[in-house]
């Protein structure tokens, strides 16, 4: 059964005039489920439009939701989201909705999308943080300031791992809060790529050292002969 009611609000929000996708909604984290039916959603609909639809159907005006398709956050129009991933809008899309997590004012670092991984490069110093996010980027933060940005991946960065650096101390005995030495780290993306980076502490630059596309063949070739023989 196709639901055409409640879609007027989505159309008004999106301003879409050409094309639509059939969408069903499900949740694993919210108490109220959406009806088991499909909705015709304009392709130019933004997450705010999806939010208004779900709020209207569930009767929960004050609750905001985030939306995911196959575990990937939807942060653009449906059309752009599907095009970037090579997904046909003629498919029936089963979209997950989950309550938005609201951070306290002043405690949220300005990322363009969900943050998937957070690491502290210097042991004993929580002011410097390395993050990977669904906007395809890795960043280094000094407090609330982004001091270095790395762009290479074409999909969400799912993990960052690094070689920890022991935090040095100044002559006064106080811990240093600035970048005082280089460090190495790696990032892994949903696009199957793994990248190796070096943080140049002098210029606060992320230098790409190399990358690999993590296909089964490439991963097998990177293993030691002893491990390969056991496969």
UniProtKB/TrEMBL annotation:
Domain of life: Eukaryota
Compartments, record wording: Nucleus
Ranges occupied by WD repeats: 108-142
Cellular component annotations (GO), alphabetically ordered: nucleus
Limits of the NLE domain: 22-82
InterPro entries, per the entry: NLE, WD40/YVTN_repeat-like_dom_sf, WD40_repeat_dom_sf, WD40_rpt
Keyword set, alphabetical order: Nucleus, Repeat, WD repeat
PROSITE patterns: WD_REPEATS_2
SMART domains to which the protein is assigned, alphabetical: WD40 (SM00320)
Name of the protein this chain belongs to: WD_repeat_protein
Natural source organism: Leishmania braziliensis MHOM/BR/75/M2904
